[in-house]
């Protein structure tokens, strides 16, 4: 029994001890958990005002603390100030900043004692009665105050109170409050440091923000300054880049668009003298161009009169209308009334010249003071540019008006001058026509006798100053012209004369002169002659042209031309002498058979008695001699043959060649007789001079029927006729009869040597060369010279040389100064040349036929 009683007693003690330990562990757990939560709150909350409610929430889990407050010492005043307050009775009616004398109450008592103090309601009353502190606030059933230490210094008091008599504070709960107070100081310090750090961060952030704001302001200012500078550059460039004022206005509008709202913009110009406002540029979404108006009481006039930038909104617009500063002539539709209007004056050194205006409708934009400042800034620059442009335009307009007046005056003068010039030209035409009529033939329009004689006089005078500039005159008389008039009528005769004038014009050069003397007589003046035979070439062309018959109305009539030629010479002193000699040569050609030409000889105009004339024309009484020209190779080392030419002493003509003398023979029989004697004499001279071959020019008359018989009989007299070669003229053989050509072939067949003289003088025909077996061919001097001048003649020469080579004909070149061109002619294939003429060594002047044997 005793043991059984003992055992329960020990168990009770053990249980009691276990309960105490459990309570102790529970208290330790609560304390540990509360401290952890307090540490977490101290690490997370950013402000003390948030820390105290967090501590209050933690305490309410473990300690009756619906009424809880924290009092801390203020560092500056060293007074206790309420930091947190929560009370069941007083509630939130006690603000944190209310002045409470905590030093005088239980809180101040705990702060002064520095110890945790627990009071019941009665105990607090008793202590207050004892004068330890004053009773403040609503009395609590239980009150506990715990000092808050920071290191060794008290910095405040943590207090909890209960208004429930049954709910007091155990020792464990008080210990928890004490533990909380210890950690509270650390938590407060941590939060204060965090607050200080955050405060410093905020201060630094605020400072940086302020610095950034200032920097942004400076950047904006610099951007604005740069923008203004760029705008100034653009405006200044308008002076040189804008083509005209319209272009300048457009570019100003584009610039304004970059600085403010400028959807609707107009530029107005003000003329003080006239009192008118014009609107040269206007862009508006509701209206087109604005018409000029007189200065009145509008928004534009307000800007001009005040010389200040104006911003007008609906309210101010109404005030301006009510005050009478602005008046409207007619009401404006509300939908088309500007809701914001900005106008800046265009001011220069001479005053306001206009304004620039931007306006917005339907509240699309509201102009501000910044817009006003910007547009005011640029308006001054725009005004300067516009003033320059307007001055330039005015100057240009002035110049244009001046130029216009000058042009009008010039036009008037030009018209007057034109009228005067027309009168002068008309007079000149009349004078020219009169001159032309006075100096030209009315039928053929060719120069007449007067013009020809005038030009001939000038040519003669020029020749007398420059003897090397030779000229020639051709006197032409048409053959059978009377027959044309008789058979076809005078009208056909006139047509014939016109046609002849046109044909003759084709035969001469541009600088030569063709004239009609009258009737059927024409005359040609050839100038700048280099060779006498050039005149003969012209005569031959005219003769060939006149061989064609003239046909009209189905009737054809054959005509011709008799031509007399005279060359320039120093003895001529008057033009009458030249015309006289050319006329004499023409009559001689007409009397000699017509349709031919003759060169003038003094014998044609020599006055003599009848019996003297008959004596002078007997060739058999004239002394005859031969002159020889050597035919040599190019290097002059070899004399191939000799060219004989007969000359006679004529009383009038002097020492003259037989070719000229034979034209004055008294009859054909005498001519033939003398020429046959010359052939025999030439043979004898060649034999005596030991000349291998003598080339002697002969007349084609010797080839006629009776004369050919005499020629062959004469050639049989010498025992050997090998040294002699008879040369016949190319032009004569070209017009020879068939009998003559046949006799020429017969002469070759009989074994006599024959040659062709003056080949290609006017044309190069190869028929004779190919048909007749000539031994020699002498080129005319004209053809020899032309070979060197024109390529076409070289081609003719090459064809000729090819034929002569095949037929074994020896080709000889002759002409004045031909030896100077031997090297050039040799390149063309010619290697035989006629040298200078000289008398025969054995030749003596003798009469071939005496007068008794006639």
């Amino acid at each position: 029994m005793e043991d059984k009683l003992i055992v329960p007693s020990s168990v009770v003690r053990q249980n009691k001890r276990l309960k105490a330990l459990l309570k102790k562990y529970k208290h330790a757990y609560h304390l540990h958990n509360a401290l952890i939560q307090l540490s977490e709150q101290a690490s997370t909350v950013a402000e003390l005002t948030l820390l105290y409610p967090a501590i209050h929430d933690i305490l309410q889990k473990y300690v009756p603390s619906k009424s809880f407050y924290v009092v801390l010492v203020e560092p500056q005043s060293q007074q206790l100030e309420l930091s947190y307050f929560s009370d069941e009775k007083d509630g939130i009616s006690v603000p944190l900043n209310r002045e409470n004398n905590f030093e005088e109450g239980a809180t101040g008592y705990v702060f002064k004692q520095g110890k945790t103090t627990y009071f019941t309601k009665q105990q607090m009353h008793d202590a207050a009665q004892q004068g330890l502190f004053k009773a403040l606030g609503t009395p609590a059933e239980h009150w506990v105050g715990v000092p808050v230490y920071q290191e060794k210094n008290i910095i405040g008091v943590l207090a909890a109170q209960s208004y429930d008599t049954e709910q007091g504070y155990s020792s464990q709960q008080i210990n928890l409050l004490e533990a909380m107070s210890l950690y509270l100081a650390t938590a407060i310090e941590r939060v204060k440091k965090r607050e200080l750090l955050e405060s410093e961060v905020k201060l630094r952030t605020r400072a940086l923000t302020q610095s950034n704001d200032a920097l942004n302001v400076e950047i904006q200012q610099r951007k604005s300054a740069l923008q203004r500078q760029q705008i100034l550059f653009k405006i200044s460039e308008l002076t040189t880049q804008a083509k005209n004022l319209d272009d300048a206005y457009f570019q100003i509008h584009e610039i304004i668009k970059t600085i403010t709202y400028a959807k609707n913009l107009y530029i107005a110009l003000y003329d003080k003298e006239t009192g008118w406002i014009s609107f040269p540029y206007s862009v508006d979404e509701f209206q087109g161009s604005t018409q000029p108006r007189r200065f009145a009481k509008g928004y534009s006039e307000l800007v001009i009169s005040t010389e200040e930038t104006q911003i007008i909104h609906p309210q101010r617009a109404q005030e301006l209308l009510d005050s009478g500063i602005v008046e409207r002539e007619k009401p404006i539709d509300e939908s088309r009334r500007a809701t914001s209007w900005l106008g800046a004056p265009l001011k220069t050194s001479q005053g306001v010249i206009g304004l620039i205006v931007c306006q917005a409708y339907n509240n699309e934009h509201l102009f501000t003071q910044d817009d006003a400042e910007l547009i005011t800034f640029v308006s001054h620059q725009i005004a300067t540019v516009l003033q320059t442009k307007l001055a330039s335009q005015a100057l240009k307009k002035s110049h244009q008006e001046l130029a216009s007046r000058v042009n009008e005056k010039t036009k008037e003068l030009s018209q007057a001058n034109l009228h005067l010039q027309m009168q002068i030209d008309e007079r000149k035409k009349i004078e020219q026509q009169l001159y032309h009529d006075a100096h030209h033939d009315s039928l053929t329009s060719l120069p007449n006798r007067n013009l020809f004689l005038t030009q001939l006089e000038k040519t003669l005078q020029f020749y007398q100053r420059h003897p090397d500039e030779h000229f020639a005159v051709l006197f032409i008389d048409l053959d059978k012209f009377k027959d044309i008039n008789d058979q076809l009528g005078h009208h056909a005769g006139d047509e014939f004369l016109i046609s002849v004038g046109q044909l003759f014009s084709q035969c001469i050069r541009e600088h030569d002169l063709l004239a009609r003397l009258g009737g059927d007589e024409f005359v040609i003046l050839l100038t700048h002659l280099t060779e006498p035979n050039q005149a003969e070439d012209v005569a031959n062309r005219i003769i060939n042209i006149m061989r064609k018959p003239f046909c009209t109305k189905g009737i054809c009539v054959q005509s011709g031309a008799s031509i007399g030629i005279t060359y320039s010479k120093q003895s001529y002193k008057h033009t009458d002498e030249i015309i006289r000699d050319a006329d004499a040569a023409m009559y001689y050609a007409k009397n000699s058979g017509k349709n031919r030409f003759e060169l003038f000889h003094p014998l044609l105009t020599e006055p003599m008695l009848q019996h003297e004339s008959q004596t002078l024309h007997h060739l058999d009484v004239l002394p005859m001699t031969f002159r020889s020209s050597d035919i040599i190779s190019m290097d002059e080392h070899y004399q191939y043959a000799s060219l004989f030419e007969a000359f006679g002493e004529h009383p009038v003509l002097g020492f003259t060649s037989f070719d000229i003398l034979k034209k004055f023979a008294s009859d054909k029989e005498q001519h033939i007789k003398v020429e046959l004697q010359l052939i025999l004499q030439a043979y004898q001279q060649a034999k005596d001079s030991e000349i291998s071959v003598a080339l002697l020019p002969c007349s084609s008359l010797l080839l006629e029927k009776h004369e050919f018989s005499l020629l062959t009989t004469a050639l049989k007299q010498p025992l050997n006729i090998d040294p002699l070669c008879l040369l016949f003229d190319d032009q004569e053989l070209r017009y020879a009869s068939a009998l003559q050509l046949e006799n020429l072939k017969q002469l070759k067949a009989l074994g006599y040597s024959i040659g062709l003289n003056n080949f290609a003088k006017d044309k190069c025909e190869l028929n004779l060369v190919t048909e007749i077996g000539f031994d020699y061919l002498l080129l005319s001097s004209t053809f020899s010279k032309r070979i060197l001048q024109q390529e076409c003649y070289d081609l003719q020469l090459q064809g000729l040389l090819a034929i002569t080579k095949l037929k074994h004909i020896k080709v000889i070149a002759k002409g004045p100064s031909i030896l100077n061109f031997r090297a050039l002619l040799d390149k063309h294939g010619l290697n035989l040349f006629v040298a200078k003429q000289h008398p025969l060594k054995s030749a003596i002047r003798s009469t071939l036929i005496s007068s008794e044997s006639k």
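The radius of gyration is 74 Å. The longest strand covers residues 639-650.
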